[in-house]
Design a protein that fits this description.
262 residues, 4-stranded antiparallel beta sheet, binds 2-oxoadipic acid, binds magnesium ion
């Protein structure tokens, strides 16, 4: 940690304003080259406090940069976590305004809904299998607040891991009914297959990615609790969207989630 609390608060104000106003800001490390991962999470926590003060409720956490495709696309090779709030949920059938974002992109992910708390350290795949009530298909809409969607690890963490919105499928499946690793998905945009993948792309097993989220969030003093939703990470690269686009994550055995943009 290199930043004083007053500076953390100042940067958190800038990041939150950029998120709310859909405005790009320079990457934080341009002004603070010594910013480290601890500083990034300190800023993220201060950003979270601003969401809570605005009336958002924290309903879950997400993994970022847990697949090779994402690591290759973004050039950042360490995973990170971000928080999700009730107001980030896209209600089924409601179009998402592109103009609410700087440069939104979409990802297909497996979402885990917890029926029990996860340990904050020493969390294993077995703990995740035990605690998961069901999984649902998800489309995550990410949006970096940094110019050109370009960042390093401390900066993207400060920006809550590019979290913007997410849409969940309506039909849950129990993990025991699925082969989590070979679970296939096609990310379809305007009827064209943009990318395909299998859930093992995410940390070898999406349940292992959830265990990692429990560890990383736990280290921040943020336990993953029963009732929370955890996004396990983009399986393929993310794709930019424009008004009028229709995005469909079509999962083998898990069903489909559609998101329309306006
Ligand atoms: C960071 C967020 C990554 C994922 O699923 O890997 C993420 C980014 O790529 O902007 O959500
Ligand atoms: Mg994601």
């Amino acid at each position: 940690m290199s930043l004083a609390q007053a500076e953390i608060e100042r940067i958190a104000d800038q990041v939150r304003a950029a998120q709310r106003d859909a405005r790009a800001i320079p990457m934080i490390t341009l002004e603070h080259p010594d910013l480290d991962v601890g500083d990034g999470y300190a800023i993220q926590s201060a950003v979270q406090a601003r969401y809570r003060a605005e009336g958002h409720r924290i309903i879950g956490w997400k993994a970022g940069l847990t697949s090779r495709a994402k690591i290759a696309q973004m050039g950042v090779d360490k995973p990170a976590v971000g928080f999700m709030t009730d107001r980030m949920v896209v209600p089924a059938g409601t179009p998402v305004p592109v103009a609410d974002h700087v440069h939104p992109r979409v990802e297909a992910e497996v979402a885990f809904v917890l029926g029990a708390d996860l340990p904050t350290s020493g969390c294993t795949v077995e703990h995740v299998l035990e605690a998961t009530a069901f999984v649902v298909p998800a489309v995550e809409i990410i949006d970096s607040r940094f110019e050109n969607f370009s960042f390093d690890l401390p900066s993207v963490i400060a920006d809550n891991c590019s979290t913007a919105r997410f849409a969940l499928g309506s039909r849950g499946r129990r993990l025991a009914e699925l082969d989590r690793r070979t679970l296939g998905v096609s990310l379809v945009i305007n009827g064209e297959v943009a990318a395909t993948g299998a859930a093992a792309a995410v940390w070898g097993d999406p349940a292992a990615s959830v265990a990692l989220v429990a560890e990383l969030a736990g280290a921040l003093g943020e336990p993953l609790r029963a009732g929370m939703t955890v996004l396990s990470g983009g399986i393929t690269a993310a794709f930019a969207v424009s008004p009028g686009d229709v995005v469909s994550a079509r999962f083998q055995d898990l069903g489909v989630v559609d998101v329309r943009f306006r």
